[in-house]
Specification:
- 43% of the residues lie in helices and 16% in strands.
- By secondary structure, the protein is of the alpha/beta class.
- It folds into two domains: 178 residues, Glycogen Phosphorylase B (Rossmann fold, 3-Layer(aba) Sandwich); 157 residues, Rossmann fold.
- The protein has a six-stranded parallel beta sheet with strand order 10-9-8-11-12-13, sandwiched between helices.
- Helix 3 runs parallel beside helix 4 and helix 8 packs across helix 13.
- The protein starts with 11 loop residues before the first helix and ends with a helix.
């Protein structure tokens, strides 16, 4: 595996790769993950849940930094490729290292396109031809949502791209004892989102006065990012600071308890693949209110929550209030978990990846 970030970094992509690799190890496979030394306190090498993790230099959390990491990781990745059966690129910056390392042993290359970074760049005059070459260079292309797969097919119509929704470890993400104190009669909304513009938290805060005019709620924001100061200022300006808790980034191990402390999850995204965080909330029996963008409508409907128009605080508030007043909110949460277990468990994800890997290996041997 090649991926720019890996735990203890927190995020949907990090969670997806960690749990997928862990499931592969549990099935008897050997997994090396080459990632960035994204924080100076992280070791250059460690074994995590049986996964051999190798961290190499990255100068910054931006496009030039990711590109520099991709190039700087090549010596380590090429060395590991000498004994690899499959090379899997788990983000855009990982494609070139996998393609270059394929020359060592001619192992098949799998690429997964996960995030809004791909969608945002898909129409770029620079990136579109780059993506076309990436798609054609891989032996198998996967996408985390139907939308990403469809966009990829418009870039390279001659290439097959399979949509494989990210999975959740349902044995870890399940309803458990709440870790937050009782909300004193208020309904508690949770938005486990990093505080970046594309995640739309501004619109949730702008919706807060409209929600509070109808229902007494407490909004819990789990995540950090460059918009925090501005969002705190906005909450104060709108007079809702006492109803909005900024918890900052929390370790992955705390999430089930935090989510189990809440009544409804809200995802006001402006752009989204298939949200791992939304699936994690559903696995903890939380109904989900989400914006009608990207892969969110693929996992959220009236049976497990509700959808609202993106960047519309008014529609967000109407949807949240209607859900909070529904007699079936707890039943929606139970149905949400059942749906994740049936369709989007990590076991299903691992099984599909192993089938893909084995087919590619067999095809390469027969060539």
């Amino acid at each position: 595996m090649h991926c720019v970030y890996f735990p203890p970094e927190v995020g949907g992509l990090e969670s997806h790769i960690h749990f997928l690799c862990r499931a592969l190890v549990a099935r008897g496979h050997e997994v090396d993950a080459v990632t960035s030394r994204s924080r100076p306190d992280l070791p250059g090498h460690e074994v995590m849940d049986g996964i051999r993790v190798w961290r190499t230099w990255m100068p910054g959390r931006n496009t030039p930094g990711w590109a520099a990491h991709a190039l700087g990781s090549l010596p380590r990745f090429r060395a590991l490729a000498e004994s690899a059966d499959v090379l899997h690129a788990q983000d855009i910056a990982a494609v070139l290292p996998c393609v270059f390392a394929r020359r060592v042993r001619n192992a098949p290359v799998v690429t997964t396109y996960h995030s809004s970074h791909f969608l945002m760049r898909a129409e770029s005059r620079f990136w579109r031809p780059v993506f076309r070459r990436f798609l054609r260079a891989a032996d198998c292309n996967l996408a985390a949502s139907t939308e990403i797969a469809q966009v990829a097919r418009t870039i390279a119509p001659d290439v097959d791209v399979e949509a494989v929704t990210n999975g959740v470890d349902t044995s870890f993400f399940q309803r458990t004892d709440p870790s937050l104190p009782p909300a004193e009669g208020r309904a508690r909304l949770v938005a486990p989102r990093r505080l970046f513009e594309k995640n739309g938290i501004e619109h949730l805060i702008r919706a807060a006065p409209l929600i509070l005019a109808e229902e007494d709620v407490q909004i819990v924001l789990i995540g950090d990012g460059p918009e925090r100061v501005e969002l705190e200022r906005l909450a104060g300006e709108l007079g809702v600071s006492d109803h909005v808790d900024f918890l900052g980034s929390r370790p992955h191990g705390q999430m089930p308890g935090l989510l189990s402390s809440c009544d409804l999850a809200v995802f006001p995204s402006l752009m989204e693949a298939t949200s791992v965080a939304a699936l994690e909330c559903m696995a903890c029996e939380l109904p989900v209110a989400a914006s009608r963008v990207g892969g969110l409508p693929e996992i959220v409907d009236a049976g497990v929550g509700g959808l609202f128009e993106p960047a519309s605080p008014e529609d967000l508030a109407r949807t949240v209030v209607a859900l909070l007043r529904s007699d079936g909110l707890r039943a929606m949460g139970a149905d949400a978990r059942a749906r994740v277990v049936e369709r989007w468990s990590n076991d299903r994800l691992a099984d599909r990846h192993i089938a893909i890997y084995e087919a590619l290996i067999d095809r390469r041997r027969a060539a």
